[in-house]
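Weekend entry, working from home. Most of the wet-lab plans are on hold until the incubator is repaired, so I used the time to fold the two sequences that have been sitting in the queue since the last round of cloning. Logging both here for the record. First:
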Amino acid sequence: MSATGSASVGYHVIPHDDSHWQSQWHSKDGFQYDPIIRNHYTSSRTTLPRMTNEPRLPLVVPLTPAGRGAIAALLVAGPRAVELVEAVFVANSGRRLAEAPSDRIVVGRFVQEGVPGEPLVARRIADDRVELDGHGGAAAVARLERALVRRGAKSSSWADWIALDEPDPLRADAAVALAKAPTARSAGILLDQYNGALRRAWDALRAALEGGQIATAQSRLALLRGRAVLGRHLVEPWRVVLAGAANVGKSSLMNALMGYRRAIVHPTPGTTRDVVRATAAIDGWPVELSDTAGLRPGGDPVERAGVHLAQDRIEAADLVVWVLDAARPGLSRACVVGREANRSLIAWNKTDLAPMPADGPPGLATVAVTGEGVESLLAAISRRLVPEPPPPGEAVPFTAEQATSLDRAATHLAANRADKALRELTRAASLRSR
């Protein structure tokens, strides 16, 4: 089975430029879960929550990601929002926007110096909130935003805006992280947090402490802390490094894992001098794969520099796949002496030329040039990175600040300071990461 393909079958690597994801995740610089963010700001709620920090100036907030698009949405929010929009918008009906029923779509045009121009659609969500939808080109969006700013508005990123608008800091942080999620699986977990999974778990933990249920609190705390490592990699990819001696087939295995030719392959030892990286999804988890220079003494200055880079990448890796040559087991094994077993996998390559040695370290048999064993290796990588994926709807801490707070609370509990653990969790739940 090919290593590149649908995310729903087997353990696949999906390059981030795959057109399947592009059709659902729209962004010039990556992926953004735009529909959730847009709906948060523009839903037709009868009573909109008051902003936690009311802006003194009306804000102009882009709701669609940067890049090309057919339609772009802007939110104008704050005092005089309707008045501000009326200065740059004229309805085709001739009626004022302030007279239109709430949540009614009004079709009109963008007005510059009294002259109607490009088509524009306005929707008055509330007296202090108006959505504008117009041409999605970057120049058109910039013109509209500049016109609003000239009339007294202030530009704001949607991430800054949500910090003002969302009363729950955990939900606000989830919205920001969700927009950066590089895979559908990551987005699904972050969407659960946006919908309250982490807030419910956090409040339940605090309630246990308030009620003196220390054993229950410790159990809940351990569960959340155990998921914090996964949470920090829902946006930032896991770093997986292919390492080993020269000419063992690391670059060929990198290409086999990716499903396309990412690294240069040549029989001359030391061909790879720099670190070759590629981002992908393995079983839905975001991963950055790195092919490194072969580890061997000597070589020219450029090759030695490449070996130093490789060693740096190995030190910083979340998981190191040590690639060994089944046809030259003695040479290969020297590279993995002293390896950390908990963050290492062994891949015996070229097992079409020789079997895995009985006296060698246990590992997986692969043939990079044919793809044999690649699916098993991908499955092993996924299991090592995420041994116990959380069930749908479960709480997963996803920021470094959340993880630090949970660690501090655990330290307080271990020292019988339940009151300080409660204060720490209460403090963290009210902080905004931005």
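Second, folded right after the first finished:
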Amino acid sequence: MAGAGSLSRPMKNASEGVTCLAFRAVQIHGGKKSRCGARWLRDFGEAVLYSTFYDLLRGHAKLNPMLLNPFSVPADASRIAIIGPGRLGTAFAYKFGRDNKRVIIYYHDVDVCKEINRDHLNPRHLTKDLDRRLGGMDKVPRLSPKVTATNNLEQVVEDNDFIFLSVTMDRLPELLNHIRPILERKTTNTCFISAIKGLTADDITRQLITPSQLIRNNYFPIKDRFDVVTLGGPFFDTDIALGNPVCLTVAGEKKICQIVRKEFLGSNRRELTSLYNFDSVGAEVCGALKNIVANVKGAADRLELGDSLPGTLFSRSGVEVRSLSRLLGGSFQAFQSQAGVGDMYVTLSSDASKNHRYGRYFYELFTGNSLETHRKVLERIDGKPEGPNTILNVHKFLEKRNMYSPIFHCAYKIFNEERSREEIREQILQATQFDRRTREYIGPTSRLLYRLFPNLWYRRHRGLLANP
């Protein structure tokens, strides 16, 4: 077709496709009459057919954006890029390499890239933990020869249709700003696979948003050129790296999730399998909030409060996670999913969790100054736990909404305000033993109002709805 090359990217709408092809036809044939005029009409007719085909696709099904443009190049699932080669990014580099995928890792430090390419090991993350766990550096597996590293972000984004994101939430906005001009020039669609766990405040509404919402908000003007798939727990990076059995959650638009599950997560189900969840927001919110609970649980484990308290902490935290998840746009059943109760269980019960270790180290190293203690704890942990930053963002949201949430209020006070170990102990006891709520169920009237008005009907910290 004449002018088809100008459609290497998806048109924003049908009229843009008509205008583009019509203009291209005039440009080629110079608006001449007779035979050239007939050719011009033919090209314009093809443009009209294209617009009709586009509208049919848009109107009949909510399809993968890659399918909306019949002239776009099919996605290449033989290769994948990883942006953020921390512990989790490195772990998935091991996994994708074992599956014979071509993997390119982006890291800003050229010296680290050279070491990865030379030694097939990450010199900064995960390798030392694998060394301790396996009993020697000689037993640590090497990355596949098909795994390479580069500090060229433009090459990484342009050459790969699937991009795995594993940066921390506070670094995501800056990364998206760097990627955006590359994405605008790119001639094929992009699928972002996000394993990021955290919450941040939207710049305009100040509402708490998840990683996938932040990506969609930032790239809204080019929304037809990308899609987002969310990966949720339960999983630990060491298990992914070593090929231990893991079943994770894949959430997002169904068709693109099917592609990701088949091409990247389904080659060896003895190692890694997945379950589909339509609720990406709920999965992300649960994944972020359980890190706060893990921080509290880590500190509680050092208090010698017995073996029964963790059960109360787990169950009452579940109530708060479920309520806040619903308030932020997740489904009511989000916490009952693998990415909810399953992820929270392993995060609270295993020292493999960075956030659990953070809480434990915080209590052990506590100096009376929360910022000083925070810095000391980070020196002992490989990677940055998301819990402390999520605590700050959630606390601001709770204060603004006047929402009663004793466990999350407790977390904020422990890691940002308290000045002694005795005060930390008292905060945990107040949150678990002195809850204003005296019953475990929701009455029929409250249940109805809660489902009808989830953004309005919840227990307040102060005021009319503060009483049990």
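Plan for Monday: verify the second prediction. The CA atoms of residues 459 and 465 lie 6 Å apart.
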